[in-house]
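My convention is simple: the sequence line spells out the residues, with the fold written below as integer tokens. I include a record here:
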Amino acid sequence: MHDDKIQSLPYDKDAEESLIGCALFSGEAAEVLLLTVKPEDFYFDACRWSYQAIANLQRDGRPIDAVTFGEELVSMRKLDVVGGAVGVARLLDIVPHAAHVRHYADIVLERSRRRKLIWAAQSVARKAYEPQADSLALIGELTRQMDDIQGNSVGDIRTIAAVSQSLQERALRPQVVISTGIADVDAALRGGYRPNQLIVVAGRPGMGKTAYALGLLEGAAAQSHPCLMFSLEMDAEEIVERAAADTERLVRMERAPIYFEDQIFDLEGICATIRRSVARNHVRLVVIDYLTLIETTDRNAKVHEKVEKITRQLKRVARQQGVAIVLLSQLNRDLEKRDDKRPKLSDLRSSGAIEQDADIVQFLYRPEVYNSDDRPGEAEIIVAKQRSYRTSTVRVAYRGDQTRFVPFEEREVAVEEYSFDKA
């Protein structure tokens, strides 16, 4: 128990003791306790140790009642912490039955979250007074802690029937699909990108990653989906200058809900900006150019550790915020030693983390980059990974004078042209 600040932090002793008491009355209530809260959600040490005793009994397959509970506390040498035999009896007397176990759990969780909010705010506030404090890093740290507090809230487990009902309800709602701006690519992706997805688009230098990104912004904006691009390599003016080669295209993009950020390079700042942009501007698509330029707090981390942290965090943000995040990436130069220079998943830098976290992996391949006489003006957009679905290669055209990818030929494209059998 926190002695000198007991009055300053939110807690509810009655709710904590009642929750433990319910668990001693009923095996079902004990399950609710163990599935809903964690030891650290209790403010009082007596309740924390009581929780641990109940968890030990369940782990060992022993019945949970006043007798076994007391015996376990004795074996843990914590019976005195809960007030001895009198304290155990009091936990049984405080509630007449276990019917309100969820209500007590909700109260305990609410007070726990409020305490964590206070501690997080105090911690960041102390650091903000330091002369060398980085405000953006602190904002990112605070935002991450807020996400952790929210993410640690344990929801109810669901039956197959409940999940099936959720699927039926989802089927009745309009599905959000974000166009890539190229019909054949959309068809290969079952219509386009979807919220909650992390998409990695990779290629060697000169393949047109930024051009493809501009096309994504244009395609999403054409559907009235607000989008945000982080440009870590070039400033926003350089990006827009590339689009200015086509006046009509530039005018369309000027009128569209497209936002640029070219001053934030750290992962925490990027994630914080995404959250803020979703809340303020209702952003649906985020493009980050590009992976290895993102800075992390641990500057001594190995490359694969850095990539793993970045992809894991961005995947988490995509799911939490309901956005599609497209992460541009370089490929290993070793592929250029091969006769066939088409990229493969193993060509990704730190490919293990990327393959694990990405829902979709796409490669950009233009043969004329290696041989000017090899299909000039043609390109391949290779879908190397698509979670739960087969891969494919889409033939497109590349217009270097306009810095854009376009359909190889204008035609009506049906999704059925691409195979979507489960891989």
Summary: The beta strands are 198-202, 227-231, 258-261, 285-289, 324-329, 360-365, 378-386, 392-399, 404-407. The chain has a mean pLDDT of 83.
